[in-house]
Amino acid sequence: MAPIVSIDRLTKTYGNGFEALKGIDLDIEEGEILALLGPNGAGKTTLISIICGLVNPGSGKVMVAGHDVVKDFRATRALIGLVPQELTTDMFETVWNTVSFSRGVHGKKPDPALIESILKDLSLWEKKDNTLRELSGGMKRRVLIAKALAHEPKILFLDEPTAGVDVNLRREMWQVVERLRENGVTIILTTHYIEEAEEIADRVGVINGGRLLLVEEKRALMQKLGRKQLRLELSEPLTALPDSLALYNLTLADDGTALVHEYQGDEGQGSIASLLATLAAEDIHFRDLSTRQSSLEDIFVALVGEKA
User: CB under 8 Å to 76, separation ≥6 — which residues?
Assistant: First the structure.
């Protein structure tokens, strides 16, 4: 099956000479959740804006469900819902009217039952008659999502959807995103909250300096790039490591009371057993051990740092 979004050698340079995108290649599969991570100015918003038809590309091509985003703008825009970073709604309009109007803008017939369902899913039903200026920042963010869903898009872009939203509300939004995916909606989100990607994404893309550094299935990425650490609290401090332990990637704590062994993926399974056997042979005993696996945030920071 062809990808629902296909990006080929996409570039964008603004009038001031800033290269926002430098040859992006990316295929997005129908029904997946893709998280795009990157620091400010990395190119995330520019990429989304081009796909959504809000910004013209410099060169390259973007196809959405087989339609060129430049040549077939109306066809592609009808398939896409966008939740922008900025709150750009009429503060004196009611929630109900705002969301209903958004459906009409896309040429869809009125569907009060659908609007009601969307508002209830986003915990906005009790606020349907309130004006937007009466809502909290988190509620306004939900209204943006409701507007983006009003015309029943096949692809939903969420540009920093939970910025300024409290933890509980954020988790409720993740649940909404998961339900949308179950209904076949393809979701692409940009976020500074890396735990969002770790929680809900199928694949993770990392952008920095206008380049797509990688796109990987989340679990494969964690296995491939995630590092693991074994820490052994020693029964008696050591002043130095015996020569027999030189083969292992070991660090002795400054006070000599702990050994730290770092390894990657599954490579440590055999080495840990061998390490423990060598410690026993050297009559080195430990009173406690603990393990730690690097998070997606650790991987992201390392990647961006390497490519900076």
Answer: 53, 64, 65, 67, 68, 69
